[in-house]
TrEMBL record:
InterPro entries from the UniProt entry: DUF7703
Record region (Disordered): 284-337
Keyword GTP-binding: no
Highest rank taxon of the organism: Eukaryota
Keyword set, alphabetical order: Membrane, Transmembrane, Transmembrane helix
Keyword presence, rRNA-binding: no
Name of this chain's protein: DUF7703 domain-containing protein
Organism this protein belongs to: Penicillium frequentans
Biased composition annotated in UniProt, kind: Basic and acidic residues: 316-326
Length: 337
C-alpha cells in the first residue's frame, strides 16, 4: 500500500481519501477559502462596475466562477470522494483551463489601459493562445491518460508529472511577462504625464501598483517551488486559493489605475471605460455671447481624440478624464448614472 509521500508524487492519479486527517483539514480549508474569495469578488465586481460588459469584466468573472470554483471542487471530488474519475477529472480540467488562461486574459485586458503599442498587445494575445495549445492541451491528454484510459500506468503518471512542471513554469513566465509590461508602462504613465506627477499621491499609487504586481509574481513562484518540491496535493489545492487572491488583487490594481487615469488626461479605451465606475466629463459648447463681446481669436484646433483598438478588436475613440472638480465646466455634472 502506498504511503502519503508516494501518493503526492503520483500527481493527479494519487488519492488522499484515506490519508492524514490534518492534511485533509488543511486542504479542505483552502478549498473553502477559494470559493469564499470568488463569492466576495463577484459581489464587489457586480456592485462596482457601472456596465456589465467588456473583456476585463467578463474575463474577471469567468476566471473566478467558471475557473477557480470548478477547479477546487473537481480536486475535492478527486482526492476526498469516491466520485467517478471521468467526472472529477472533467470538472477540474474545465476549471483549470478557465482559471489559468482566464487569469492571463485578465492581465491582457488591463494592459490596454496603459499600453498603446498594438504590436506588443498582439504579441501578448498570440502568446496566450499559443501557450494554451502547447501547455494545456498536452497536460489534459496526460491527465485523462493517467486517470481514465491507462489508470495507474507508471509511464502516464511520470509523463503527467513532467508536463505539470513544464506547464506551470510556462504559465508563470507568461504571467510574469505581462505583469512586468504592465508595471513598466504604468510607471511611464506616471512619470510622463504632467497632470498625474503633480498629484501628491501619485508616487504612492505607483508603489502600490508595483507592490501588488510583485506580490502576484511571488505567489506564482511559491506554487512553482511547491511543484518542484513534489508537494503536488498541497500545490494544486493552494493554487485555487492563490488564483482567487490574485483575481482580487487584480481588481485592486484596477482601482489604483483608475485613480491614475482620473487624475490625468491620459486616454482610455471606451470599451474598457464603459465597464469601470468612472465618470467622463463632456465638453460643452462655448458661450456665443462672450465670443461676440470680445475680439475674435484664432480658432484653436479641436481637442484630439485618440483612436485605439479595444480588447475586443474594435477601433474606438478614447475619452479624457479630468483630475479635479475645479476643472469641470458648469453644468457638466458627472457621475451617479
Amino acid at each position: 500500500m502506498s504511503t502519503l509521500p508516494q501518493d503526492l508524487l503520483d500527481g493527479i492519479s494519487g488519492a488522499l481519501a484515506a490519508e492524514g486527517n490534518v492534511l485533509q483539514m488543511v486542504l479542505v480549508t483552502f478549498i473553502a477559502l477559494s470559493c469564499y474569495n470568488i463569492a466576495e469578488l463577484v459581489v464587489l465586481v457586480t456592485a462596482t462596475f457601472r456596465r456589465w460588459r467588456g473583456l476585463y469584466f467578463w474575463s474577471l468573472l469567468t476566471s473566478g466562477c467558471l475557473g477557480v470554483v470548478p477547479y477546487t471542487i473537481g480536486f475535492m471530488m478527486k482526492f476526498f470522494t469516491r466520485a467517478d474519475s471521468v467526472l472529477s477529472v472533467t470538472v477540474l480540467t474545465i476549471g483549470w483551463w478557465t482559471m489559468v488562461t482566464g487569469q492571463s486574459v485578465v492581465l491582457y485586458s488591463r494592459l490596454h489601459l496603459v499600453l498603446r503599442d498594438e504590436k506588443i498587445l498582439t504579441w501578448v494575445l498570440r502568446m496566450i493562445v499559443l501557450n494554451f495549445f502547447l501547455l494545456q492541451v498536452p497536460t489534459t491528454i496526460l491527465t485523462y491518460g493517467a486517470n481514465v484510459i491507462h489508470t495507474g500506468s507508471l509511464a502516464w503518471v511520470w509523463g503527467y508529472n513532467v508536463m505539470e512542471k513544464v506547464q506551470l513554469t510556462g504559465f508563470t513566465i507568461q504571467e510574469s511577462l505581462i505583469s512586468t509590461l504592465y508595471v513598466i508602462h504604468t510607471v511611464k504613465l506616471l512619470r510622463l504625464g504632467a497632470d498625474t506627477t503633480s498629484r501628491s499621491n501619485s508616487r504612492t499609487i505607483m508603489y502600490q501598483v508595483i507592490g501588488i504586481n510583485c506580490t502576484i509574481m511571488a505567489m506564482d513562484l511559491l506554487l512553482l517551488s511547491l511543484e518542484y518540491a513534489n508537494q503536488y496535493a498541497v500545490q494544486i489545492v493552494l493554487k485555487g486559493f492563490i488564483y482567487s487572491i490574485k483575481l482580487k488583487l487584480e481588481f485592486a490594481v484596477l482601482g489604483r489605475l483608475v485613480d491614475i487615469i482620473q487624475g490625468s488626461r491620459h486616454p482610455i479605451s471606451v470599451a474598457i471605460a464603459d465597464t469601470l465606475p468612472l465618470c467622463s466629463y463632456p465638453h460643452l459648447p462655448e458661450s456665443s455671447s462672450r465670443a461676440e463681446q470680445t475680439d475674435p481669436e484664432p480658432e484653436s484646433e479641436p481637442e484630439p481624440k485618440g483612436v485605439i483598438a479595444s480588447p475586443d478588436g474594435e477601433v474606438v475613440e478614447t475619452r479624457d478624464f479630468v483630475e479635479s472638480r475645479q476643472s469641470r465646466r458648469p453644468g457638466s455634472w458627472p457621475c451617479n448614472e
